[in-house]
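Consortium newsletter contribution from the modelling node. Members have asked for a concrete example of what our holo predictions look like. Here is one, prepared for the zinc ion complex that several groups have been discussing at recent meetings.
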Amino acid sequence: MKRRFCLSAALALSTLAAQVTVLKNVRLIDGTGRQPFTDVSVVISGGRIRDIGGNVQAPSGANVVDLSGKTVMPGITNLHGHVGMTKGLAQAKENFTQDNIEAQLRNYASYGVTSVVSMGSDIDPALMIRIRDRQRDGHVIGARVYSAGRGFTGLKGYPSMLPGNQGVPFEVSTAAQARTYVDELAKARVDLVKMWVDDHLGRYPSLAPELYTAVIDQAHKRKLKAAAHLFYLADAKKLLDAGLDAMAHSVRDAEVDSDLIAKLKKNNATAIATLTREQSTFVYATPPAWLDDPFFTRAVPGDIIKTVKSDPFRNKVANDPDFEKNKQFFQQASRNLKKLSDAGVRIGFGTDTGPPARFQGYFEHWEMELMVQAGLTPMQVLQSASKNAAEFLGVAKDFGTLEKGKYADLIVLDKNPLDDIRNSRTIHSVYIGGVKQ
Ligand SMILES: [Zn+2]
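And here is the predicted structure:
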């Protein structure tokens, strides 16, 4: 009796492993930049795309989903997020729990964000790495996470002095210290290294060049890429001279120039715009209409929306001494994004969501809209959030575009986002590794 039970259990398991899903009759935007395929079927098994074509035969027993009229696009990869540190409208170390992290990853996934990079705010890197490794063993819960562990700043540097950020970044004062911490992170098997190089308009000491040079150099010795929060054009150039691999925000103090473009190309570096992050510094002064958009409200509790709309919250934003400047920084960031894109620099996709009032999920779709408003085509934006992001992460062999052999991380949409990027919000379903979320 027992033996028979074991046999049937084994059979059930092998059936599950062999389960084939066929997404039938779709328009497929594969993320490579080529024109979409129309009326194709996507065959998925073992988490990966096995075939794409107009005339593919579904194996018997396959789970065939007829999606006539719908569009499939690659899942969104957000190269700049912060996972697990915020609850409601407050950031705190105590929030960094497995439950909170997984809830946020599930929420990202529900919005079609199938991968996210947690950019230097993982107060307990080992916890995030455990969650990531479990995902990589096949237990994908929500968006796939990549981690920079704890990022680097100088003593009392930005953002250490902000509420909920004390003790989050490594505050380094010597190159030797910086190298030791990078080694620690490498040993913990982080995916990349993050640093903050910004005096925040003169308010804090910025990470000194000899310190960020040590961070970048040591990261490279450990085969890790280095990304930087930056603000000033001059810092961006010096960081690139030191070997930087990604600008985690736009240059916002000045127009980017041919010198910067040459340095970005020389390093094969990636530029991430985070336009929604700039918006979040001023947009709440007058409650934006999208606070009532069902695509937003479905994931955000009513009391939070009420607070964001409240007079004290609005006044705090409107009375920020940098309020007018912040609007200009957004405009500058938008112009620089277009200029770098036109110059052929790899544009990565990132939002800086996760900190209070930078809403995970909704903001990724708004970011795509703002990138189109900045002058990119919807196709360029979709590529940035798929192919380009996977290239930066060094995982393009398995992720990013929707091609034979790659993981089936994808979004099924009711409408075509190439007609209007806002159609990315018409989510019918989301698949990660071929599993419907
Ligand atoms: Zn950030």
